[in-house]
Amino acid sequence: MTAPDPTARPAPLVGTVVLAGVGLIGGSVGLGLQQRFLARRVIGLDRDPAVLEAARGLGVIDEARLEAGPWLAEADLVVLATPARTLERLAAEVAPFLRDDAIVTDVGSAKADVVAALTPRLRFVGGHPMAGSERMGVLNADPSLLENAVWVLTPTSGTDPAALTVVTELVRALGALPIEVAPELHDRLVATVSHVPYLASVALTQLVAEADDRELLMLLAAGGFRDLTRVASGSPRMSRDMVVSNRFAVREAVARFGRALTALADRLDDPEALLDAAEGAKRTRDALPVVRRTLMPARFEFVIAVPDRPGELARITRALGDADVNVKDIEVLGIRESGGAIRLAFETVDERTRGAEALRAAGYEARGRGEANGG
């Protein structure tokens, strides 16, 4: 058996990362860090032992911690990934134990208040990945949620430029698209495209729930109603915190939405005017960018670390061919100065397993869901 090549694993972009909150987004970040070899070590901080146990089993984290303490001095980067209304309190808990050079970022959906509160006290970079799912918790974490997603960063004049560079590079390495937006502008924008749609879905479901003919309405609810109300199936507590933390911008957006809805109702007696509005809506909807999360099914794939040198792709495919394993798809996730990562997808679980064994025997480190340490 060929001895593992110590140069095959790329140098991490960051050393020790602490995920303060290991739910859907925190877990997805952790899996992305692990599978793309972006961090030397990932520590999970969460009050729920069952969540931490699941995160370790899935390969999201390397270590688990139930509460803040002196161990946080090891952190190079802290990702605050709890509900929006808890972020400032969580930051206050971890801040006394952090080194002065530690970077802190978050994934909260409202930015103005948290950026104003944390920037003077920490090397803080506000962030918000525009990704998610109605399925919550670390068991539903998936790094593909972040792939090709817009990840808003909200620096201000008080933001450390070096910290912003680190977070930007890491976001890009996770497969997302980092963009910079002022905190207040961010809050106004997401009120329209995220927070009001949530309240609208709640309102629509309330119309059904409170109707005298509720059972018949539920029977008649088809794909359109289900699509419009999908976000109401998410965590009620987290969604509540999301809209409450941005309540001023949300109120303004709700007022605009109400006026727009009333204007459409006023056009019901003017079919041509309503058609104009409908055609404009179709053009806008059809112009929305299509986000491709991933090219391959997660169940039959893994990621391998590769050094930055000629011939690596040929060596990989040769090792798979010698093992009689057929690869269905290959995706280069990125090459850094010291190397990068390649994702491979297979037709069956058996081919995935045999492919991983063949490449590990050839000296490569392979990682998939639940395989953060190459096992």
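(ticket continues) Second input and output from the same batch:
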Amino acid sequence: MFIGASGARAQDFETDRFTFRGFGTIGLTTHDAEGIEFRRNVGQGYGSEANELDFHADSLAGLQLNSRIAARFDLALQGVTRINAEGNWTPRVTQAFLRYSPDESLVLRAGRFGYEIYLLAESRQVGYSYLAVRPSQDFYGLVTNDEVDGIDASWTTRLGPGLFKVRVFGGEGSDETALHDGTSWSGSSDAVGATLDYTWRSLTARAAALEVRYGANADLRELGTFLASSGSPPAIDIGEELIGSEQVSRGLQLGLAYDGGPLQAQLLYGHIISDSIAGPNVNAFQAQAGYRVGDWTPYLSFAKSRDRNPIRSTGLPELPELLPVIGTVRELQDNMRATQHSTSLGVRWDLSSHWAFKAQVDFTDIHDSALNFDRRPANSGDTRMTVLTAAVDFVF
């Protein structure tokens, strides 16, 4: 969970049996797009307004306790405080698991742990462990909480000249989304996934798959029942999707990363598909490269996400009594839109093995996206946003 974070080492207390670690980010963010509120992901309840300095988007703090309770058993507990969907800083337990490893190849865990599908990073929370100020908003912005309460198993073996690792996991996850009208949505889901890694020298290739099943939502089912009985073929199709006992989203991520000598680079492709209008249907891409010179690492990245499907219409007549239904169907789709792209330039300065300073500028073109709060008048069209961020990451 952040062992090996760019060489950082924790301070041990009394014995090696118990270790206590801390990490965090203090970030200042501003941007120039009037009527837009920038946020790190859709799980943040409010964002940074134009031409104002704000520390909410990228700041967080966390503590972690590890305990070796027996020769092959470890216990880990981690808590993080950050802005959540309700707009407050309530601490959250992000890791709490028992780990069993009978040998060097097999690891079993039970409890709360992360998806851990992020290449060249210990987790999204530990900013010190990755190069940029934040995980790409375009690529990861629809992911809020990435923890699972369940079990996982990983197995590593030598295959040819490199190492092959397979990991499978399953359990209950939780999700939260903050909406532009000031409300928020949260719920639980059943998640199963797997990652396949192959590492050879400084190269790592990864394929990761995830399936998330949400329980039946009474409000969506009621809406679906109405649409299915409306007599309009487009509305019937949408209604039948919403009536289902489960809503399912599936994701695939392919990645290639290089981390050797002064060069660090990665290519990522993501694909998310959902079986109803209430879930995301996007393709995403990210390319990033940095080159270290002494204690300084300038980097460049490009990321893009695009909705595969246009906004679907119910086909219902715009009668006064039907306008709330038409608006709700539109809003369900708007809440999961993510068509935008960004070019980012930045530099990381490693002050020590525990501190790193980062400065980054993002040039973002927004076409149809709910990743940020759009407070502009309706139908304002595409816009460009320049985001400036300065941050300090630390571990101890």
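Agent notes: The first strand starts at residue 18 and ends at 31. Residues 98-395 form a domain with the Porin fold (CATH 2.40.160). Closing as not reproducible unless the customer responds.
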